[in-house]
Amino acid sequence: QGNMAFAGKYEFEGDENYDDFVNKIGLPSDKIEMGRNCKIVTEVVQNGNDFTWTQHFPGGRTTTNTFTIGKEADMETMGGKKFKATVKMEDGKIVAAFPNYHHTAEICGGKLVEVSSQISRLVYEKKKKKKP
């Protein structure tokens, strides 16, 4: 199990496909505007497999998630929705399933890189055999 050092303070640098993603996950428009190109500062405190992950938003709002790798924890989305998740470490990346998206975080070249991707859901109906 990889265990990269995540501890540090990271300032927002840029995003890709922000509008498309936040619209797909149903973030309210006021939260979308608040998050667009805002200088979020993410502060990570790591003690072995124990993490405190805090995002400081302009205007003084913060979101803090405290979790231990491999154990279920109470979490909160950037939109304020509370949920339970078991955060994992996979190939040096922190991985968590949020209510309607998959989130990974890793350290690349000294930078914190977070990737959120929407979870799609496919449903198939069993075909009934045709009677002769």
Automatic annotation (TrEMBL):
Keywords from the UniProt entry: Cytoplasm, Lipid-binding, Transport
GO cellular component, one term: cytoplasm
One Pfam family from the record: Lipocalin_7
Compartments, record wording: Cytoplasm
Gene Ontology molecular functions: lipid binding
Keyword Transcription: no
Record's keyword annotation contains Transport: yes
Family: Belongs to the calycin superfamily. Fatty-acid binding protein (FABP) family.
Protein name from the UniProt record: Gastrotropin
Organism of origin: Aptenodytes patagonicus
